[in-house]
Amino acid sequence: WTHQFKLPAQDNSRKRMDMFGVVGDTARSASSLNVQFSDDDWQTLSAARVIDMTSSDKKLTRCGAYRSRGVRLTHTANLDIRLEQAVAKVS
Question: Is the pTM of this model over 0.70?
Answer without folding.
Answer: yes
